[in-house]
Specification:
By secondary structure, this protein is an alpha/beta fold. Among the domains are: 251 residues, Alkaline Phosphatase, subunit A (3-Layer(aba) Sandwich); 84 residues, Tetratricopeptide repeat domain (Serine Threonine Protein Phosphatase 5, Tetratricopeptide repeat). 47% of the residues lie in helices and 9% in strands. It has 28 helices and 13 strands. The strands form 3 sheets. It has a 9-stranded mixed β-sheet, sandwiched between helices. A two-stranded antiparallel sheet has the order 3-4. Strands 10-11 form a two-stranded antiparallel ribbon.
């Protein structure tokens, strides 16, 4: 089967995909307003923008492979930061050989197009694609690595580019004062303080600059149709320095705050400077997409930064960024309800190629101009021909894997390896199964989540976290008794914790006891320690109990605290519709859908509000979206039929 490319008049000559891990509009907008990110401002002035909703669990290896493949974790197979070594004891960083389906660059290779791929998560060893690839294992690892040290074997394809890419790497010792001072103006004084973070800052600057140097070197060659470059800097800076971002958190020392308060703004401005170079090399015939996999809490929602109080994932906000410009991109367009699943189908459309039916995302057609998405094919996996994926038997050197693991330990994503490699291996498998189950719950596949959880062995199987996820899956299937049994088996602190209380309230709703759910959440709200999101949860159960005035008050308080919460906006929209205020219901519902299109009840609310204001044709679109996301919902199908009749569209 041969796939023909569309040749639309507005299709760009090539596409540049720039990944900024953890980039967040909440951080970017003030910098744009102050004139501190002029390159992105110019791109936005002639392009499209919007939020990108993430998927769960919010872990970078999973998310960036979802972006590259358009598939969820269960399909692409990358389930975490680490995996067992295939041919021996112990574990290694997740390898490119674990990805089970084609990424964009494999599809393009199959279609005779050339790609540059630099630094993408879980891309080691580099794949033999048409073009060039530098894997994510390119950093200086050992303390005695000197400038100019060779890259790890397998980090570069084709191999003859390895020496050139090694020359591009920036060693931390090569980062001078002119690079450090924009981040820490009093670096000289700070270096004299015991426990300072200037050395870590220099490492992160060097890592980011290395990625950029390698990407620009490859782009300068000009022989490419697609370039994908992944910058991890914003995320890694966040884990190290977001606690020092203004305003000062109560838990942060004043001297540390004074020293490092400029770091987060600094790394965004650094990325903007690098983007200017990328755009210059890409040229005017290239469509450019700048995206992130998630955001990063930067205000009152930041978790407690003290050791042991929160994990790295607790800092991740569920909305990333989408920005695009150039040929094929509609100037001034707003992207609504986009998710990271939509990136691959949209890139394929810009390249004149079809997305596949097994890619759950959509083409962001509202962001495109002069580009028509080709009709989908069933799957790219059955399209024959060389695609540049690795042979199944390929293995990674275990010593290289161990060196890369040290970085993940340093970032706090994994614990230091224990003496018992086999136990570590077992625990890694269990952790990845847990993350697979979380992905299934996120996509509403609760039965598959329970299957994944059933395969967990070792100490993790009996932990409260696994029991809570199992209870959540049972609740999603409507099995209140099994969910209650899991909650009853929790240990003392977890049994009385906020998560268990919220799930118990949800179970009360499942069994029709809305008043009991309200009572549970009222008691939770009365506890001395604050519970994040309690007003949003309380508003929902109050609405279910028919206490609409109280529900509206709780939901509006929740929006005051977090204006970009799609669930809260949707719940308030439904409440206003019930009150007969179709206009505000429509406004709130559209805001909710603009953040996350994957909410069938929001589409139902929007459709009903449109019917109430006489916009029958638009209501058809809303109800059609509802049916697409919830095909088994009979009420949605009935509403769609009624709207079509009212719009004169027939059956």
């Amino acid at each position: 089967m041969r796939i023909e490319r569309r040749n639309d008049s507005g299709r760009p000559k090539r596409v540049l995909l720039v990944g900024w891990d953890a980039a967040d509009w909440q951080m970017i907008r003030p910098l744009l307003d102050a004139g501190h990110m002029p390159t992105l401002a110019r791109l936005l002035s002639r392009g499209a923008s919007g939020n990108l909703a993430t998927t769960r669990p919010i872990l970078s290896p999973i998310l960036w492979n979802t972006i590259a493949t358009g598939r969820r974790a269960d399909a692409h197979g990358v389930l975490g930061f680490t995996e067992p070594v295939p041919d021996g004891p112990g574990i290694r960083p997740t390898a490119s050989t674990s990805r089970r389906c084609k990424a964009l660059w494999n599809i393009l290779t199959q279609c005779g197009l050339r790609s540059n791929v630099v630094g993408w998560y879980a891309s080691h060893p580099a794949e033999p694609i048409a073009g060039a690839m530098v894997s994510n294992q390119f950093e200086f690892r050992a303390e005695d690595d000197a400038p100019g040290a060779p890259l790890p074997a397998g980090a570069v394809h084709p191999a003859e580019l390895a020496a050139t890419m090694a020359e591009c790497r920036v060693h931390p010792s090569e980062v001078d004062a002119s690079a450090v001072l924009p981040f820490v103006p009093d670096a000289a004084l700070e270096l004299a303080r015991e426990g300072n973070r200037v050395g870590k800052l220099m490492q992160l600057i060097a890592q980011t600059a290395s990625i950029h140097a390698m990407a620009t070197r490859l782009m300068e060659r000009g022989d490419w149709d697609f370039t994908a470059v992944y910058y991890e800097g914003i995320d890694r800076f966040g884990h190290e320095f977001m606690e020092f971002h203004p305003p000062r958190m109560a838990e942060v020392d004043e001297r540390d705050f004074a020293a490092y308060r400029h770091c987060m703004n600094g790394i965004y401005r650094f990325h903007d400077m690098m983007l200017e170079t990328l755009l210059g090399l890409a040229g005017p015939d290239t469509a450019v997409l700048v995206i992130s996999d998630h955001g990063y809490w930067n205000d009152h929602r930041r978790p407690d930064p003290r050791p042991g109080k929160a994990g790295p994932v607790d800092w991740h906000r569920p909305y990333g960024i989408f920005a695009g410009g150039g040929p094929g991109i509609r100037a001034g367009a707003r992207v609504h309800g986009a998710s990271i699943l939509d990136v691959a189908p949209t890139v394929l459309a810009l390249m004149g190629l079809p997305a596949a039916d097994d890619m759950p995302g959509r083409v962001l057609s509202e962001a495109l101009e002069g580009v028509e998405a080709p009709q989908r094919i069933a799957t790219w996996e059955s399209v024959p021909g060389e695609c540049g994926m690795h042979a199944a038997e390929l293995r990674v050197d275990p010593e290289e894997a161990r060196a890369a693991l040290a970085q993940l330990v340093d970032l706090g994503y994994i614990d230091p390896l224990g003496a018992d490699d086999e136990a570590t291996r077992r625990d890694t498998v269990a952790s990845n199964r847990l993350q697979l189950a979380q992905s299934h719950v996120d996509s509403g596949q609760h039965a598959r989540a329970l299957e994944a959880l059933a395969g967990i062995e070792g100490p993790l199987a009996a932990t409260d976290g696994v029991r809570m996820l199992r209870a959540t899956a049972h609740a999603g299937l409507g099995d209140a008794a099994s969910a209650e049994a899991e909650l009853a088996a929790l240990h003392g602190d977890a049994r009385e914790g906020a998560g268990a209380a919220v799930l118990r309230a949800r179970l009360r709703l499942v069994t029709g006891d809305a008043a009991g759910a309200v009572e549970l959440l009222r008691a939770l709200a009365a506890r001395p320690e604050p519970v994040e999101g309690i007003d949003a949860m309380l508003g929902r159960v109050l609405a279910a109990a028919g206490r609409d005035a109280e529900a509206e008050g709780a939901l509006r308080r929740a929006l005051d605290a977090e204006p970009e919460d799609a669930g809260t906006l949707g719940a308030l929209a439904a409440l206003r519709l019930r009150a007969g205020d179709a206009e505000e219901a429509l406004e709130l519902g559209l805001r909710a859908a603009a953040l996350d299109m994957r909410q069938p009840r929001v589409h139902m609310t929007v459709g009903c509000a449109l019917m109430a204001v006489g916009e029958h044709g638009e209501a058809v679109n809303a109800f059609a979206a509802c049916v697409a996301h919830a095909p088994g919902w009979a009420e949605a199908r009935q509403a769609l039929a009624a709207a079509r009749a009212a719009a004169g569209q027939g059956a």
